[in-house]
User: Fold LysR family transcriptional regulator from Silvania hatchlandensis.
Amino acid sequence: MERKVDFNATKLFISVVNAGSFSAASERLGVPISTLSRKINELEQALNVQLLDRSRQGVKPTYKGKQFYEEARLGVELLEDAQKSVTSAHKLQGKLRLSVPPNFSLWWDLLLEFQQRYPDIHVFCHSSERVVDLFEDGIDVALRMGSLNTDDVIVKTVMDVEIVFVASPKLLARYGTPETLTEMARLPIAAWETLNHGFFEWESGVEKVKYEPFFSTNNLQGLIHYALSGMGVAQLMDFSARPWLESGELVQLLPGVARQSMPLNLVYARRKHPSALVRAYLDFCAEWVEKLK
Assistant:
């Protein structure tokens, strides 16, 4: 006789996978570890399949567990959306787990306004250079820059970010204002570099120039500090440089000549039906970015 699958046990299983361990899920949910373990054991027995690999480091879904997780999460979200849609006092509520690149100040303003519109949505925002795994890290939507080639996720480009060269008037008084990339490469350069990646080449039309940075870092504030101090030319996102350009503390170099832009993408798991919270966030981002244009 086929045993029925417990809906509440399924929700607990999804929470444990998202949290990565029974202890983390217990803390998030306020449910004892013993209860979580018992309910998931019962779920595995009902399905007659092992869903989790358990170890001292935590838990990971088995191959069958991943399959069940994806389908079950979709079903749970659909059912919760349906329950909310027939409630007269319907409000979007729950927790949204996001990933945003470090030093991405533009998005903090967006998130402030998003939570003002949806005060019952709690947001966790992970900020790191590391490219998160949407499944392993339990991230609903990640913000990523640059071209992406993957079939595992859905990529929604929301805007193109212009990259500008800037320097302080002090530096230009000392070295002169460059008129070509070749001339600019002779100036001290403050460049972006991570532990595993540094690409020191500029390209504009037929001109391609390699350069050696005087200073490099993976910290945006460090680049801005060097530029403002007159220590080097920096390449910044336009919205990061805008306050200093407007105040005159920085000057844009080679405007219209060395134009460069990168796509800004929202990335989320490839599912048939994104949750109501994810849809609200995607729609809000598109609306908010449109107002910037």
